[in-house]
């Protein structure tokens, strides 16, 4: 038994209520039975557990172990710098954990926005009296009183309606208001039944009484809320890659540390020396600065994107957007302006554009009809009157007023619109003459017309004329326009207003026009290899028309799938349908839209979803990247999304995609830069064990590079400007690794080896210059040893200065690249040089890092070797461009 199929009496009987509503006692009883009319939050993990989880992933565990070993070593062998090392590692763990927790916490707040959309108070009949009650205590069987401007607090069955039209866009995605009636209907869909009102929608015009049949989570609105809560947000590609990289590097570091601890013990090194050596290997292999640098780099990218009107709520979304392969876009308010306007007029046997004023500017009857035949209300806002009500009627009234404003002419009487007649009429008096103006659906107005007005010449509307009008209506409908017919008649002094023997004046086609910049944005998406699919709750004919206007479809026969057909499709059928080059989904529900997104993800697509309504929220949440409209979007959509477009401009998505692609490339650049220094940090320890030489680099000096001198230059690489060629390339393959073999070979086996060779050469140069002979060991406080380790540390830093330039592009030469395009490079270099000078030439730097001042000649050697690294890398690039370019 579907309540929409029942008569008013049967519906009241089925809910055991009356038109006078429930008694207060019965309402209280039902409240205990059905619960409060609100959205219950699903129990989630406590904030404390979410916070602690960020400190227990694999990467963090390795750092915990390293810190624990450092503190253990400090207790048993104090004075070796292990305390400072342990504190520094804990600092890294804390920074990474706080950043990650904040992102996770913000992602869990979507339900708060859902509750804001439902009204707080409602007008109901109880005990036969009309009274205002809290919307939370509404129950099935309550009789609601609703009028223009009210939000619907629960799912209701209309029992009385007068000119009611409801905006269902937030639930269904339908752009045009829908009429509501009290009679039984045969439709079995809750979303389409003309006698039902759904929670979360709003009354655009008219007034009605309705009986509640569902509250809280049992409403359609509640079901969407449930989907939004229960569907887990997808993990971004960057998050997966960082997790993979962390496990690989951490496991490799732990393995090497263990191996060389055993090796040190086997060759007879003291236990504490072997332990220090193992910790050094772990610390040298784990790029402690990588995660903070990634996070800060993404944060800087969000600032750049905000300047381009894309507000990022979740940092990993920046990179994910850059790898997008498919955009599922809503139509209303995303591709279109969400504002009805008059577009075309059929008048004088011609179909003309509204912009062509010459064709109708003298048509007083048509202009007055458009200007006064409505039931809009006026509101005085900011020194101007603003029309409130049905967007379609507002568009017609504005069309009339712009054509010729006749001022305030009172409406003498009105024949109200209803869903059966599909028309309305008003009577006004102008220059002492009464006129009846009628507008409505062409199929309901044309049969009432006996004559046609052609340039103020009234002639009979014979069958041929009627066919011409119908043909014009069909052409306008094919273009996706909402078509209304306009007619009038002159009333005698005492004549009763009747809709008969009317004079046809015109057809007006209205549209929700596409945003002017969308067409170019769609073209940019296509050139970047990104497929755009329209997924809307609107009519398929309207969707196709808009898609053609913006260049989304160009063929004669695109695949258009409606929600009902989608519901019946198997997974295999949908998978095959999604391979169509041009596809549009129309009349889809929130769950069906989510079904499309899931199917695309199963096809290994990286899916971005745009939307603005409540019905979009579940799909926004499960998509790889959810994009909400900032101006027209509901709070629900914004809270479920990863990115919010501040200007509701689809073109801003393309700019954000360009920024996202840049982010991935920049992360690779600074990852290459950071990993390069790992090799000159590891090799000294290996040489220390194998060749029995003084340890060229201490653990605290390794941290000076990883968490000190390298951080800001790495961030400078993260701020590199976009390469314009990125948007002319196809999306990055989903399985492409952040740590690719190319990055590993270049960072570890090429640049890292060059740096290691340079730093060890300088280390031995300082030793030999002072007469050191192979085989002799030096004490940890020996000035010569301190000077030699300082030279090794400084040479790594100098090599990293040059490495900063060559890492700006894996193949292009660093010389033509203008430094003015990235001022942070100079800041990074300045900070890097100042820090190393402080470490080398200040007493506290000498004390903390175990360093000693160096002579000028040593600096000269380091700079020459660093420049040599740059020359060799530029030579490699030249060979790569000549022999391996595509």
From TrEMBL:
One GO cellular component term noted in the UniProt record for this chain: plasma membrane
GO MF annotations in UniProt: ATP binding; ATP hydrolysis activity; P-type ion transporter activity
Compartments where found: Cell membrane
Listed SUPFAM superfamilies: Calcium ATPase, transduction domain A (SSF81653), Calcium ATPase, transmembrane domain M (SSF81665), HAD-like (SSF56784), Metal cation-transporting ATPase, ATP-binding domain N (SSF81660)
Annotated Pfam families: Cation_ATPase, Cation_ATPase_C, Cation_ATPase_N, E1-E2_ATPase, Hydrolase_3
Keyword Transmembrane attributed: yes
Main location: membrane
Transmembrane feature ranges: 47-71, 83-102, 248-269, 275-299, 670-691, 697-717, 738-764, 784-805, 825-844, 856-872
All copies of domain Cation-transporting P-type ATPase N-terminal, residue ranges: 2-75
Annotated InterPro entries: ATPase_P-typ_cation-transptr_C, ATPase_P-typ_cation-transptr_N, ATPase_P-typ_cyto_dom_N, ATPase_P-typ_P_site, ATPase_P-typ_TM_dom_sf, ATPase_P-typ_transduc_dom_A_sf, ATPase_P-type_domA, Cation_transp_ATPase_P-type
Keywords: ATP-binding, Cell membrane, Membrane, Nucleotide-binding, Translocase, Transmembrane, Transmembrane helix
Topology in membrane: Multi-pass membrane protein
Family per similarity comment: Belongs to the cation transport ATPase (P-type) (TC 3.A.3) family. Type IIA subfamily.
Name under which the protein is recorded: ATPase, P-type (Transporting), HAD superfamily, subfamily IC
């Amino acid at each position: 038994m579907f309540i929409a199929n029942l008569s008013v009496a049967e519906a009241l009987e089925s809910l055991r209520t009356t038109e006078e509503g429930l008694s207060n006692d019965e309402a209280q009883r039902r409240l205990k039975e059905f619960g409060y009319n609100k959205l219950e939050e699903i129990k989630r993990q406590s904030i404390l557990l979410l916070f602690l989880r960020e400190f227990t992933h694999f990467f963090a565990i390795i750092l915990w172990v390293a810190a624990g070993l450092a503190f253990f070593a400090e207790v048993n062998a104090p004075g070796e710098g292990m305390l400072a090392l342990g504190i520094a590692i804990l600092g890294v763990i804390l920074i990474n954990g706080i950043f990650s927790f904040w992102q996770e916490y913000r992602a869990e707040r979507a339900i708060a926005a859902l509750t804001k959309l439902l009204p707080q108070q409602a007008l109901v009949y109880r005990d036969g009296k009309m009274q205002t009650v809290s919307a939370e205590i509404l129950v099935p069987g309550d009789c609601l009183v609703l009028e223009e401007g009210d939000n619907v607090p629960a799912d209701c069955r209309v029992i009385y309606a007068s000119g009611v039209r409801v905006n269902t866009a937030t639930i269904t995605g339908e752009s045009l208001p829908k009429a509501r009636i009290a009679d039984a209907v045969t439709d079995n869909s809750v979303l389409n039944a003309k006698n039902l009102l759904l929670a979360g929608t709003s009354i655009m015009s008219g007034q009605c009484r309705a009986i509640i049949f569902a509250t809280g989570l049992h409403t359609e609105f509640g079901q969407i809320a449930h989907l939004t809560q229960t569907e887990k947000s997808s993990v971004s590609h960057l998050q997966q890659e960082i997790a993979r990289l962390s496990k690989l590097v951490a496991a490799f570091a732990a393995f090497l540390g263990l191996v060389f601890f055993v090796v040190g013990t086997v060759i007879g090194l003291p236990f504490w020396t072997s332990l220090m050596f193992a910790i050094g290997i772990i610390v040298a292999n784990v790029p402690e600065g990588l995660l903070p640098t990634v996070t800060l780099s993404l944060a800087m990218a969000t600032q750049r994107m905000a300047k381009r009107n894309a507000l990022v709520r979740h940092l990993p979304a920046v990179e994910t957007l850059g790898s997008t392969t498919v955009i599922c876009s809503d139509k209303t308010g995303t591709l279109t302006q969400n504002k009805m306007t008059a577009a075309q007029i059929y008048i004088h046997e011609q179909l003309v554009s509204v912009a062509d004023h010459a064709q109708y500017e003298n048509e007083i009857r048509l202009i007055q009809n458009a200007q006064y035949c409505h039931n809009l209300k006026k509101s005085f806002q900011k020194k101007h009157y603003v029309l409130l009500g049905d967007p379609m009627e507002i568009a017609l009234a504005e069309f009339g007023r712009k054509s010729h404003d006749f001022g305030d002419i009172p409406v003498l009487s009105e024949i109200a619109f209803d869903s059966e007649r599909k028309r309305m009429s008003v009577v006004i008096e102008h220059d002492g003459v009464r006129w009846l103006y009628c507008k409505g659906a062409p199929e309901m107005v044309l049969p009432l017309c006996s004559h046609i007005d052609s340039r103020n010449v009234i002639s009979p509307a014979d069958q041929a004329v009627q066919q011409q009008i119908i043909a014009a209506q069909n052409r306008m409908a094919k273009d996706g326009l909402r078509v209304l017919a306009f007619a009038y008649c002159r009333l005698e002094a005492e004549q009763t207003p009747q809709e008969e023997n009317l004079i046809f004046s015109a057809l007006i086609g209205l549209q929700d026009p596409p945003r002017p910049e969308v067409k170019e944005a769609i073209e940019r998406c296509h050139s970047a290899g990104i497929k755009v699919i329209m997924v809307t709750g609107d009519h398929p004919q309207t969707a196709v028309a808009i898609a053609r206007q913006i260049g989304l479809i160009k063929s004669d026969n695109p695949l258009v799938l409606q929600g009902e057909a989608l519901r019946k499709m198997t997974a295999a059928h949908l998978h095959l349908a999604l391979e169509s080059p041009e596809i549009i989904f129309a009349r889809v529900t929130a769950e069906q839209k989510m079904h499309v997104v899931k199917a695309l993800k199963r096809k290994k697509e990286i899916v971005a979803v745009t939307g603005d309504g409540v019905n979009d929220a579940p799909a926004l949440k499960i998509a790889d990247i959810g994009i909400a409209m900032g101006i027209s979007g509901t709070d629900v959509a914004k809270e479920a999304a990863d990115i919010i477009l501040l200007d509701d401009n689809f073109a801003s998505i393309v700019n954000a995609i360009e920024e996202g692609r840049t982010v991935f490339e920049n992360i690779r650049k600074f990852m290459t830069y950071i990993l390069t220094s790992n090799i000159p940090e590891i090799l000294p320890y290996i040489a220390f064990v194998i060749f029995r030489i003084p340890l060229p680099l201490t653990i605290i000096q390794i941290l000076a590079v990883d968490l000190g001198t390298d951080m800001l230059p790495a961030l400078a690489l993260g701020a590199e400007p976009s390469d314009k060629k990125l948007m002319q390339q196809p999306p990055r393959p989903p399985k492409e690794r952040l740590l690719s073999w190319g990055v590993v070979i270049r960072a570890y086996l090429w640049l890292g080896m060059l740096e290691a060779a340079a730093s060890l050469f300088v280390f031995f140069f300082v030793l030999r210059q002072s007469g050191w002979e192979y085989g002799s060991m030096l004490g940890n406080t020996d000035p010569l040893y301190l000077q030699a380790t300082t030279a090794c540390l400084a040479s790594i830093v100098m090599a990293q200065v040059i490495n900063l330039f060559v890492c700006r592009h894996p193949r292009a030469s660093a010389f033509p690249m203008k430094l003015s395009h990235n001022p942070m490079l100079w800041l990074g270099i300045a900070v890097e040089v100042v820090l190393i000078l402080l470490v080398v030439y200040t007493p506290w730097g000498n004390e903390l890092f175990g360093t000693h001042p160096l002579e000028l000649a040593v600096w000269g050697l380091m700079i020459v070797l660093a420049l040599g690294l740059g020359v060799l890398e530029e030579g490699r690039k030249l060979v790569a461009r000549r022999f391996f370019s595509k």
